[in-house]
Amino acid sequence: MTGLQADDVDVFARGTALLGCGGGGQVEHMALALRRALGDGEVPVVPVGAGARSVIAVGLIGSTTVLEEKTPSGRELPDALAAVERWTGRRADAVVAAQIGGVTGPAAALTALAAGLPLVDADLVGRATPRIDQLSLFVDPLPAVTAAAVTSSGLRIVVDAPDPRDLETVWREAVSHSGGWAAFAIGPVDADVLAERAVTGSVSRALQVGRAASTSLDVDGLVHAVGGRLVTEGRVLDVQRGGDAVAFVHGSMAVRDVRTGAIARIEAGSEWVHCLVDGEPVASSPSCIVVVDARSLRPVATDRARVGDELAVFVLPGAPWWWSEPRRTARVSPRAFGIDAEVVREVAA
């Protein structure tokens, strides 16, 4: 693809919502802002390495629930990007989404539009994750990490650190005392580093998944159209929720399959990350476990599933980048989300 236009926004946002795997925040308000900002224009979308030598990754950190209630002014992400440029003395040639899943996908496109830069057809996850140190950029060490965050109250924080976990420590503490969420920018990332560490084709995938979902009439049609594997469809029998320092929101739900009577349990660590059917593991991150309403086919977040809901659960292939080496897989395994379970290898749909 060559550009993202206003007519693409609805399907793009639906695709990013599905790739959020139950996390990443609600996309509607950011999609509306992007559609209005685009007007008759477009955001150029370029492949990794297409002339962009210096790329800045952008995203959001903190509570996505607060983000829905205290919506962005529109300046937070561009201001974070500008802060990184000022601190490093390097201008960005392009913008890349820190993660394609959830609200960050449309937010990255909006940032690129505001900055007058192209959006790279890639991201650093291929789905959604709760922590910055889980981004593909940080699986292997970097000489240094330069990043800026701008909170909803206007506080600006620049961090120059050798360890991405320092970003988590500093920003989470600041966000908890300054509005509940923040926009961030990381970089600039050199083109050769991005080529090695990015999950490529993410914008195109979100559009493809969103278009397929928008034309589907039922669960079976949706799963077939997006190239997924159906795990279960039925009524929610039980929902458990808690919290921890690793995944922030931890819980599970049980669904009785309407066709077979089997009991599926889907476990969450901010996102849906592990699934069992009658006690046997059938899917896990880095595969994308997606839960949708069985009637509307809209994605269901981990904090919004309720007893009595009629839902469907299916699995999309995870980004091959995560499967290529064990150390990469470990960074987005169920245990990385706070779920004590082994990785389940992908099987054909």
What does this protein look like?
There is one protein chain. By secondary structure, the chain is an alpha+beta fold. It folds into two domains: 3-202, CV3147-like fold (3-Layer(aba) Sandwich), CATH 3.40.1610.10; 218-337, CV3147-like (Beta Barrel). Helices cover 30% and strands 30% of the residues. The protein is built from eleven helices and 16 strands. The chain has helices spanning 9-19, 28-38, 64-69, 76-88, 104-115, 164-176, 191-197, 202-214, 219-225, 320-323, 326-331; strands spanning 3-5, 42-46, 54-62, 94-97, 119-123, 145-151, 156-161, 181-190, 199-200, 229-242, 250-257, 263-269, 271-277, 280-284, 288-293, 310-316. Strands 1, 2, 3, 4, 5, 6, 7, 8 and 9 form a nine-stranded mixed sheet that branches. A seven-stranded antiparallel sheet has the order 14-13-12-11-10-16-15. Strand 4 (94-97), helix 5 (104-115) and strand 5 (119-123) form a beta-alpha-beta unit. Helix 1 (9-19) packs across helix 8 and helix 2 packs parallel to helix 5 (104-115). The longest helix is centred in the N-terminal third of the chain and has 13 residues, at 76-88. The mean pLDDT is 91.
Key phrases:
CV3147-like, CV3147-like fold, 16 strands, 30% strand, 349 residues, alpha+beta, 2 domains, nine-stranded mixed sheet, seven-stranded antiparallel sheet
